[in-house]
Amino acid sequence: MLTDIQIAQANKMAPIGEVAQKIGIGADALELYGQYKAKVTMTELRSLQKKVADGKKGKLVLVTAITPTPAGEGKSTVSIGLADGLRKIGKNSVIALREPSLGPCFGVKGGACGGGYAQIVPMEEINLHFTGDIHAISVANNLIAALIDNHIQQGNPLGIDPRTISWKRCVDLNDRALRNITIGLGGTANGVPREDHFCISVASELMAIICLSTSISDLKKRIDNITIAQDYSKKPVHFSALKCTGAIAAVLKDAIRPNLVQTLEKTPAFVHGGPFANIAHGCNSINATTCALATGDYVITEAGFAADLGAEKFMDIKCRIAGLKPDAVVIVATIRALKMHGGVEKAALGTPDVAAVEKGFENLRIHIENIAKFGVPSVVAINHFVTDSDEETATLKALCEKSGVTAVVTEGWGKGGEGAADLAKEVVSICDSGKAAFKHLYADELPLKEKIETIAKEIYRAGNVEFSSVALKKLAQFTADGYGTLPICVAKTQNSISHDPKLVGAPSGYAFPVRDVQLYSGAGFVVALAGDIMTMPGLPKQPAALNIDVDDDGIISGLF
User: In the chain, fewer beta carbons within 10 Å around the N or the C end?
Assistant: First the structure.
């Protein structure tokens, strides 16, 4: 059996200009990064934005999933297979996905290009460096940090209190040793000693800003609004006070433009922006989604991890800021993963166990109910594995029907678009029914504390929320400073609907602990950190890096 990377390497890609022509984008509207990758020009981006503003937009389909397990769910694979499946049934589909982070590629999760015969390519390049967007974000982020420390070193005319600096440095790798560091050591010439921190680049506020900015002027405005610290009178200091916004925007001038690639079946795919969903807002850029909506009749996008994280943030942050209204939601589930939620060990997943499917379904049921709270109809995609028994599949379909949704078996991994044609037909039926009546989970005017409580109780099924004194004090300050209407981005484990990765299945009635909150005033949301979640991941005992290699011809192996 071929591996994902072998399948991708055996595929013959079309020149990216030919792929662009399928959706009406000419060669002069692209900036090429080799033969198979391109960025749309700023002129083309503005043209596509105008089309959407004038009412030309396709149907928007969000792909989400059940709570992740080591058995795998295949959300990206289903997203890509679905887009190819839509083209198989004669529909003009376009994909809008996130860029992979290097951290998971070398860590435990792997890349984000799909799998089997439902992949975006060039797979290795997308997973490793791509067009340099994340590197540009990392450099710009760390330039902000350097400018802050230099300002203090050079006399600190703004009176910044170094103890209150909230801006973190970043690197696009899993490196737990950088979570908490001390800088400025070695004497007066090396800066003012202080505690500092790193986050992974894809969890940085600047990544969120790139994903939520629609133009360079919008980008500059958001960078200006970044809260970097307090002064000695305890008033917030924004980055605009350093008068270096233009330099940061100059580093990011290309990173704000969406990238265009293709699937194995030559379906156009805008891949741009890469925030994690467990510690960031988990969606690709507004610009990429806009380009897809302007050029496709059906747009497939996804939000990271499960519906409690990525889908909620897509609905309450991205859709709120961009004015988007999804027409349908696909919830990806596998029988293997449901059996794990039902208590089966990974080694025994190949053995049929209808009772475990029934027990594990409780996790899927919560996600089905949660999506309904946003007023958007959904369909369950059963991502097929060869070990799935007919009885297990029939049981899952019946359970879904009882919960008010249709479940469709999809085989995109093994058959590409052909294997997702049935799912595509169901998605078209839902989109064209006009049943979507999209609404947010909470109103802008709801106080920050109550927004967090609403998410925890309505989506995570917590019984109550326990706020630390630090979190409560900060929320009060954020409100006093004029940020009380911002949406909430919860940072919590992806491995449970709750804050505790050990609480699998469908936990409810527990206490949800919020230990800290952070203001992302440039991005336009407040981050609530729950449980032990970290904004800088660490590597596992057996990192994926152990399996990755490259030969003398530059051919990479072991990437997945």
Answer: N
Angle between helices 390-402 and 354-372 (to 10 degrees): 30
| CA–CA distance, 241 with 156 (Å, rounded to integer) | 12
Cβ distance 337 to 383 under 8 Å?
no
Instruction: Tell me if residue 305 is catalytic.
Output: yes
d(CA 405, CA 412) in angstroms, rounded, equals: 21
Nearest partner of 426 among 448, 443, 444, 401, judged by Cα: 401
Residues in the chain: 560
Question: Which candidate in 37, 39, 109, 451 is catalytic?
Answer: 109
Alpha-carbon gap, residue 537 to 359, rounded angstroms: 31
CA–CA gap between residue 335 and residue 437 (Å, rounded): 30
pLDDT at 243 exceeding the cut of 80: yes
In angstroms, the CA 370 to CA 368 distance is: 5
Q: Is 43 a catalytic residue?
A: no
- Please pick, among 305, 361, 467, 478, the residue that the annotation labels catalytic: 305
Catalytic, 10? Answer no
Told to judge if 560 belongs to the known catalytic residues of this protein, a careful annotator would answer no
Contacts of 402 (CB under 8 A, 6+ apart): none
Give residue-wise pLDDT tens across range 328-360: 999 999 999 999 999 999 999 999 999 999 999
Is 77 tagged catalytic?
yes
Chain CA centroid to CA 436, Å: 23
Work out the average pLDDT over 493-503: 95
Strand order in the sheet with 180-183: 169-171, 194-200, 180-183
Respond yes or no: is residue 98 known to be catalytic. yes
Whether 277 is catalytic: yes
The overall pTM is greater than 0.85: yes
For the chain, the average pLDDT equals 96
> Residue 101: which residues within 8 A CB-CB, separation 6 or more?
112, 134, 172, 200, 201, 202, 274, 276
